[in-house]
Write a structure and sequence with these properties.
Radius of gyration: 18 Å
Structural class: alpha/beta
Number of strands: 10
Strand order of the largest sheet: 2-1-3-8-5-9
Strand content: 5-15%
Helix content: 40-55%
Length: 236
C-alpha cells in the first residue's frame, strides 16, 4: 500500500515558488495527505544518513539533476509515497494506492515512441520496495561520475528502465509493479492552448509534465479558463 505522503524537490524553498500554482493544486487534490518539500541540502543529508557509503559518488555526480534522481530513490525507499516534479501539473487525484509500486511510462512503443521508457517526473511507491535497493545497488557498483555520462542513461529514464527490465520484469516482483501506459501520466507536453485543452477534455491523464517551460508555453486566456472550470469543477 502506498502511503499518503507527497514528495517534491527543489534547489531551495525560494526556487520552488515559481511552481507554487502546481504545488498548491496537487495539495488541494490530496487535502489529508502529508506534504514534504525536499531541498538540495535535505537530500544530501538524507543520503548521508541512509546511504553514507555512496555519498562520495553522490557528491561527484556532474549534474544536480542526477543527484536529485539518486535522492528520489532514497526518499521513496525510506518513506514511500507519491513523488512528482514541481513542473508536473496534476489534473485529478492520484488514486492508485492499492499498488506497491507505480512507475508510469514516459515513452511508449504503443504510442509510436522508439522504446518503452519509465519516467522519473512522477512515481509512487510503498516504503522499502525492493526495486529501490536494486537500483541503488546498481548505482553503487558503477557510479556515473564522468562528465561524458548522460543523465538519462546514468540515473534517469534509461537507468530505471534498465533496472526494471533486468531485475524485475522476469521475476516474481513483476506482479508488485504497475507501469501505466503513457497517456495516463505522460501525455505529450502541450505547446498550445488547443493541445492543453484537448488533454483536459479527454479526462484520461492524471497530469501533465511541462518539462520546465510551463510558464513559457502559454498564458491560458480567460475564456479558456472559464471553459475548463465549467468542464472540470476541480480545475478552479
Amino acid at each position: 500500500m502506498i502511503p499518503r505522503v507527497i514528495h517534491q524537490m527543489a534547489k531551495n524553498a525560494r526556487s520552488a515558488e515559481r511552481w507554487a500554482a502546481f504545488s498548491d493544486r496537487v495539495r488541494s487534490f490530496h487535502p489529508k495527505w502529508e506534504y514534504r518539500l525536499w531541498t538540495e541540502a535535505d537530500c544530501r543529508k538524507l543520503v548521508s544518513e541512509k546511504e553514507h557509503q555512496l555519498l562520495a559518488a553522490f557528491d561527484l555526480l556532474p549534474q544536480s539533476v542526477m543527484r536529485a534522481d539518486v535522492a528520489r530513490m532514497v526518499i521513496l525507499r525510506e518513506f514511500g509515497g507519491l513523488y512528482l516534479d514541481l513542473d508536473y501539473e496534476m489534473l485529478r487525484p492520484f488514486d492508485l494506492l492499492r499498488h506497491r509500486l507505480v512507475l508510469p511510462k514516459a515513452r511508449s512503443l504503443r504510442m509510436g515512441d522508439r522504446a518503452d521508457l519509465l519516467g522519473t517526473s512522477i512515481m509512487a511507491s510503498e516504503a522499502a520496495h525492493p526495486f529501490w535497493d536494486l537500483a541503488l545497488k546498481r548505482f553503487k557498483e558503477r557510479p556515473p561520475i564522468s562528465l561524458a555520462t548522460t543523465r538519462h542513461r546514468a540515473t534517469g529514464k534509461q537507468f530505471l528502465t534498465r533496472v526494471y527490465e533486468e531485475e524485475i520484469a522476469a521475476t516474481s516482483l513483476r506482479s508488485t509493479v504497475a507501469t501505466p501506459e503513457r497517456p495516463l501520466f505522460h501525455p505529450p507536453t502541450p505547446h498550445s492552448d488547443a493541445d492543453y485543452r484537448s488533454i483536459v477534455e479527454e479526462r484520461v491523464a492524471y497530469g501533465i509534465h511541462h518539462c520546465h517551460d510551463a510558464t513559457q508555453r502559454r498564458r491560458i486566456p480567460r475564456k479558456v479558463r472559464a471553459f475548463l472550470r465549467a468542464l472540470l469543477p476541480e480545475y478552479a
